[in-house]
Design brief:
The chain is mainly α and about 140 residues long. The chain is about 85% helix and about 0% strand. The protein has helices at about 5-65, 70-80, 85, 90-115, 120-140. The model has no long low-confidence stretch (mean pLDDT about 85).
């Protein structure tokens, strides 16, 4: 079977054009896929950030309602917000706030333990109580 010479000439012209069109379509598809992946990454990061903020709010609410915290709660705050370093790497204030909450939470717990021991002299008891109230009042204004 032989191909008509005119058809053969048309195929020589159409083949490179078709290859070019397929190449352009492939590039468009790759660009669209990249944008979609970027959007999906932002959505996943937002979800993780929201979870970290929920954990911080939960910690703060617990301290405000009980006027105390435990070492376990402080450790849970660190554990539940450990991905913050990656998720908030561009915002050092948030990372510093998490660290500050942990530090103040452990100090608050230590002061409560000292007050509950009943072994403090009266002047040291008053100073410790003032320190506890000072930490409680400013702890969550970070």
């Amino acid at each position: 079977m032989t191909i008509d010479p005119t058809l053969r000439e048309w195929l020589k012209i159409i083949q490179p054009v078709a290859t070019l069109v397929l190449g352009i379509l492939t590039i468009v598809f790759i660009i669209k896929q990249h944008k979609l992946n970027k959007s999906n990454f932002k959505l996943a990061a937002f979800t993780q950030r929201a979870r970290i903020f929920d954990e911080i709010n939960s910690f703060i609410a617990g301290v405000q309602s009980r006027h105390d915290t435990s070492f376990e709660e402080c450790m849970r705050l660190l554990r539940d917000t450990r991905h913050g370093t990656f998720l908030f790497k561009g915002n050092k204030k948030i990372l510093q706030a998490i660290d500050e909450l942990y530090k103040k939470g452990t100090i608050l717990h230590e002061l409560k333990e000292r007050l509950d021991s009943g072994l403090l002299p009266e002047d040291e008891h008053k100073k410790t109580l003032d320190d506890k109230h000072s930490i409680q009042d400013c702890t969550f204004l970070v």
